[in-house]
Amino acid sequence: MFNEHEVIAEINARGFCVFSYGAVADRFEPLRDIAARFGLGEAYVPELYASPQLSGHIGYNIAYSDIPRDLDGVQPGSAVPGQSFHVDALLEPLGAVKTSILYCVRPARSGGATQVFRACDAYEEIRATDPDAAAALADSLALRRFSTIGETRSESTGPAFGWVDGTLSTRFADGATEEWNDELGPDLERGVKLLREMSAAGGAYTHDVRLQAGECLIIRNDRVAHRGTPYVHGMLPRHLTRAMFRSAPSAS
Ligand SMILES: [Fe+2]
Fold it and tell me: What are the pLDDT digits (tens) for 158-181?
C-alpha cells in the first residue's frame, strides 16, 4: 500500500505520482478507493463521451473505463501505435479536469510506457526566456482541439496555458486533433517549437512511466501533458483502467 501524504507531496511537486496499489478482484476498485481517499468526488465523464449521440456511436459513456475499450476484440500479439502529447478531456476548458488516474491490470508484452511532460514547468521556463512566445501560448485563440466521431465534429478553442483560480494550468496537446492558430505569427510558432523541443524524450521535463501490474499513475491533468507510447499486446491484452475527476487530489 501507499502513503497518502507522500503521494500528495509528489503530485504537488511534479504533477504526477506512480505507486503500487496491489492486485484486486475489481479492476475499478483502486480508482474508487483513491478518489475517496484523496477527496476527488465523483468520476467525470468528458463531454466528448457524454453526449448521447457520441456515446451511442462509440458505445462508451461510463466514468470508469477500460483501456482498450474493447478488450474482447484484441488480437493476441497485435501492435498499438503511440499517441501524441495531450491532456485528457479534449473539449473542456482550461483546468476543468484536474486529475486522471490509471491503474494497470496487466502490462503490455513490450512497450506501453506513458510519457509525462511537465508542461507547466516548461512553460515557466519559456516565460522567463521568451515572454512574447509565452504570451502567444496564453492567447485565448492559441489552440484549437477537435474531434470527429461519426458524423459529428466537435471542437474547443482556448489558450494552451493560463491561470485558473491562481494555478498555472495547461491544455497543451500537439497531434492530429490539434491546430495552432497561424494568425498569432512567429511568437506562437516559437512557443510551439520550444514546447516540442522541451517535450522530446530524455529531456529535463519528460518522464517515462511503465506501469507494472497493480501500479497506479495519478496525473494532474491540468498541470502536465501525457502520451501513450507504442506497445504490443501479449497473449492476453494489455489492460489499464482509467477515471477522470474535476478536482485535484488533497490529503484527508
Ligand atoms: Fe490520455
Answer: 999 999 999 999 999 999 999 999
Cα–Cα distance measured from residue 119 to residue 204, given in angstroms and rounded to the nearest whole number:
11
Stronger pLDDT, 169 or 147, i.e. the higher one: 169
What pLDDT was estimated at residue 57?
A: 52
- Cα 226 to ligand 1 centre (Å): 6
9-58 tens-digit pLDDT:
999 999 999 999 999 999 999 999 999 999 999 999 887 766 655 555 55
DSSP sequence for 214-238: TEEEEEETTT-EEEEPPEE--SSPP
Give 102 Cα–ligand 1 centroid separation in angstroms.
9
How many Cβ atoms are within 10 Å of 192's Cβ, its own excluded? Answer: 21
Residue 136 CA to ligand 1 centre (angstroms) = 25
pLDDT at 249 over 60: yes
- Residue 227 CA to ligand 1 centre (angstroms): 6
Strand order of the sheet with strand 215-220? 16-20, 215-220, 99-106, 239-245, 65-67
- As a whole number of angstroms, the distance between CA 97 and CA 92 comes to 7
CA of 215 relative to ligand 1 center, distance in Å = 17
Domains and CATH numbers, the chain: 4-245 (3.60.130.10)
Distances in Å between the Cα of 51 and the Cα atoms of 47, 107, 150 are 6, 31, 13
Please give the distance, rounded to the nearest whole angstrom, from the Cα atom of residue 228 to the centre of ligand 1.
Answer: 7
- Distance from residue 216's CA to the centre of ligand 1 (Å): 14
As a whole number of angstroms, the distance between CA 218 and CA 243 comes to 10
Contact 241, 126 (CB under 8 A): no
Give CA 140 to chain center in angstroms. Answer: 21
